[in-house]
TrEMBL record:
Pfam families per record: Acyl-CoA_dh_1, Acyl-CoA_dh_M, Acyl-CoA_dh_N
UniProt name for this protein: Acyl-coenzyme A oxidase 4, peroxisomal
GO molecular function: acyl-CoA dehydrogenase activity; flavin adenine dinucleotide binding
A GO cellular component entry from the record: peroxisome
UniProt family annotation: Belongs to the acyl-CoA dehydrogenase family.
Gene3D superfamilies membership: Acyl-CoA dehydrogenase/oxidase, N-terminal domain, Butyryl-CoA Dehydrogenase, subunit A, domain 2, Butyryl-CoA Dehydrogenase, subunit A, domain 3
Cofactor: FAD
Native source species: Eleusine coracana subsp. coracana
Single Gene Ontology BP annotation: fatty acid beta-oxidation
Keyword Methyltransferase: no
């Protein structure tokens, strides 16, 4: 679609064919421009981070980078603009061999947490929507089944999820409980042979098409949190796509309604009996989310680096201007620091020393630094910085939901703040006093 000439205002080509959306004719933008569909080579690895990775981590990084650049870059703008998921690309994503990440057995790759994180960044470098699709499927749905499921559930569900022949989603957030997710109200009531789920979920990625929905609900008797595996098409289950998002537009986020949805006892996750039980899942997923801003920033830097050499103003490439060089260097510095934070987080996890505060600081700080990177990138591309075809505008928008999901910047800061001060400040002081 990129580069096709569209002549009519309604998106019709000269021969009258309707092409969906009017595409940018890049030769009109400026003749030397290379669109992000032809992805630039990676030039952000200034401090030679490959030296920090073992052979397995280096080789999967290289493999994922090559596949995503070849298979996802050419289609991403079109699908992002249409706000549709590119289902035909699922076999390509399956060929990355990353679903299940650190899970061993059941057809999963059993990667190190560092390898898993680095691949997440490599997918996000090209397209953040695809990385979020993989993250929800793998680091939330699959990891919950692996860590909190029974052996029978692991054997039943993980192999096809690992191949992407079935797809997963993970439902915690509700319309009235976002940051305050542990207060969720969806109920699980005991019924003969199983449970009835009633309530609502919001923002659930992949939920409009997922075969396997991992759902967190409050046990009506114990009032504790329990986990359930709900199958696509269960009577009483309805997922509706949330429209008009400005970021991660390919990701299909849904509002879910549960009306007396029956879940057989064999699909209750025996390892989820309180909110604490999902903290081991969130520990892994938060590391993965901390690596998404690293990948997004790397991609934006790579595109800007090429663009500044291709475009000339005042008789010189944009790369020759001091102000532009300072911005590029600031972006590069942020990326080096973000990578080191992400890498250290993985090492802390691997050695069993990572705390919730460590993971939250990594997620919060990396997403804050990345906001500066994408914003500088947007400036550097001038007017073309608002066109999705040059990646930067798309990445700029995609970072916003990442800044807010998996705990907002503020909530993650408060998790770390509680850890370093010993004082929880999630509830306003007046409210906390009133409840004393
Ligand atoms: C694109 C996208 C994908 C998502 N995918 C999923 C998914 O797959 N599964 C899932 O379960 N959820 C998902 N979420 C939900 C996500 O985790 C929540 O949006 C997030 O936790 C924030 O909740 P909220 O949007 O309700 O914001 P709110 O909780 O309403 O917060 C609004 C603002 O108030 C601030 N705030 C709230 N409480 C405090 C406090 N105590 N102190 C200081 N500031 C505070 C917040 O930081 C924020 O700035 C997704 C969200 C998005 C946008």
């Amino acid at each position: 679609m990129v580069g096709k000439r569209v002549t009519a205002a309604d998106g019709r080509e000269e021969d009258g064919t309707k092409v969906g959306l009017p595409a940018l004719d890049l030769s009109l933008a400026f003749p030397q421009a290379t669109p992000a569909s032809i992805f630039p080579r990676s030039v952000s690895d200034y401090y030679q981070f490959d030296d920090l990775l073992n052979n397995e981590e280096q080789s999967i990084r290289k493999k994922v980078r090559a596949i995503v650049e070849k298979e996802i870059a050419p289609i991403m703008t079109e699908y992002w603009e249409k706000a549709e998921f590119p289902f035909h690309a699922i076999p390509k994503l399956a060929s990355l061999g990353v679903a299940g990440g650190t899970i061993k057995g059941y057809g999963c790759p059993g990667l190190s947490i560092t390898a898993s994180a680095v691949t997440m960044a490599e997918i996000a470098r090209v397209d953040a929507s695809c990385s979020t699709f993989v993250l929800v499927h793998s680091s939330l749905a699959m990891v919950t089944i692996a860590l909190c499921g029974s052996e029978a559930q692991r054997q039943k569900y993980l192999p096809s999820l690992a191949q992407f022949t079935t797809l997963g989603c993970w439902a915690l957030t509700e319309p009235d409980y976002g940051s305050d997710a542990s207060s969720l109200r969806t109920t699980a009531t005991k019924a003969p042979g199983g449970w009835h789920l009633d309530g609502q979920k919001r923002w659930i990625g992949n939920s409009t098409f997922a075969d396997v929905l991992v759902v967190l609900a409050r046990n009506a008797d114990t009032k504790q949190l329990n986990g359930f595996i709900v199958r696509k098409g269960a009577p009483g289950l309805k997922a509706t796509k949330i429209e008009n998002k400005i970021g991660l537009r390919m990701v299909q986020n849904g509002d879910i309604i549960f009306k007396k949805v029956f879940v057989p006892e064999e699909d209750r996750l025996p390892g989820v009996n309180s909110f604490q039980d999902i903290s081991k899942v969130l520990a892994i997923s938060r590391i993965m989310v901390a690596w998404q801003p690293i990948g997004i920033s790397m991609g934006v830097f790579d595109v800007c680096h090429r663009y500044l050499k291709e475009r000339k103003q005042f008789g010189a490439p944009l790369a020759a201007f001091q102000l532009n060089q300072e911005k590029l260097v600031r972006m590069l510095g942020n990326i080096q620091a973000m990578f080191l934070v992400g890498w250290r987080l993985c090492k802390l996890y691997e050695s069993g020393k990572m705390t919730p505060g460590h993971a939250s600081l990594g997620k919060a700080w990396n997403s804050r630094m990345a906001r500066e990177v994408v914003s500088l990138g947007r400036e550097l591309l001038g007017g073309n910085g608002i066109l999705a075809d040059f990646l930067v505008a798309k990445a700029f928008c995609d970072l916003e939901p990442i800044y807010s999901y998996e705990g907002t910047y503020d909530i993650n800061s408060l998790v770390t703040g509680r850890e370093i001060t010993g004082i929880a400040s999630f509830k306003p002081a007046a409210l906390a006093r009133a409840r004393l």
